[in-house]
Amino acid sequence: MKTWAQFAEESPDLAAFGKARLEGRIAYLATIRPSGAPRLHPVSPVFTANGLFVYMSSGSPKASDLRRDPRYSVHCSVEDHRGGQGEFLISGCAFETVTGNQREEVFRQARIIGRNPLDSYVVFEFRIREAAATIYGDSGPRRTIWKTEEVDRGNLSAQ
Questions:
Q1: What is the reported pLDDT for 152?
Q2: What is the 3-state secondary structure (H, E, C) of the chain?
Q3: Buried/exposed code over 68-98 (b: 16+ C-beta within 10 A; e: otherwise)
Q4: What is the Cα–Cα distance from 120 to 58, expressed in whole angstroms?
Q5: Cα separation, 106 vs 137, whole angstroms
Q6: Cα(24)–Cα(35) distance, integer angstroms
Q7: Which of 39, 51, 64, 104 would suit a FRET pair with 98, their CA atoms being 20 to 30 Å apart?
Q8: By C-alpha distance, which of 93, 107, 108, 7 is closest to 50?
Q9: Could you tell me the maximum CA-CA distance found in the chain, to the nearest angstrom?
Q10: Alpha carbons 68 and 97: distance in angstroms, whole number
Q11: Integer Cα distance of 60 and 100 in angstroms
Q12: What distance in Å separates the CA atoms of residue 87 and residue 65, rounded to the nearest whole number?
């Protein structure tokens, strides 16, 4: 899996599109419930120079889901039923951030875009396994897909 910075280095146009569709906006995070069923949450993604993060209450269902099973998908919101400015989707694994410096940078960036995270919130970094964009035009949808070249052996670790 790749950090956002690594993904952006490999696919700069797709990353720029994704950042424009996610930053400062509401997106939808899909996690996996203990039963195996999906759970959907509105979130406010935050970008730093190196990564993509989401902060949340420590006791929230999304935090519990990600601690138990780090797999996720995030989809941007769209403006209308014609697809608005396009769709962006990422999938991968999320890892709780415990370093104070990284948390502070995430909170600083969140405040810059008008958010107000509480000091008690936990922060997860979203590593990326796959990204996709769909842009709608007069000639139909145009899709772009990026996947990490790493071999998936069923290991959910960040390595």
A1: 53
A2: CECHHHHHHHCHHHHHHHHHHHCCCCEEEEEECCCCCEEEEEECCEECCCCEEEEECCCCHHHHHHHHCCEEEEEECCCCCCCCCCEEEEEEEEEEECCHHHHHHHHHHHHHCCCCCCCCCEEEEEEEEEEEEEEEECCEEEEEEEECCCCCCCCCCCC
A3: ebbebbbbbebeeeeeeebbbbbbbbbbebe
A4: 7
A5: 35
A6: 32
A7: 39
A8: 7
A9: 48
A10: 15
A11: 21
A12: 25
Distance of CA 78 to the CA centre of its chain: 16
Which pair of tokens denotes residue 26? 């509401």
Q: What is d(CA 16, CA 120) in angstroms, rounded to the nearest whole number?
A: 31
pLDDT of residue 39: 97
pLDDT for res 79? 83
This prediction has a pTM of 0.89
Domains of the chain: 4-147 (2.30.110.10)
- CA–CA gap between residue 141 and residue 112 (Å, rounded): 34
Low-confidence ranges of the chain (pLDDT < 50): 154-159
Is the distance from CB of 94 to CB of 54 less than 8 angstroms?
yes
Nearest in space to 56 (alpha carbons), one of 36, 31, 35, 78: 31
Separation between Cα atoms, residue 41 and residue 61, nearest integer Å:
9
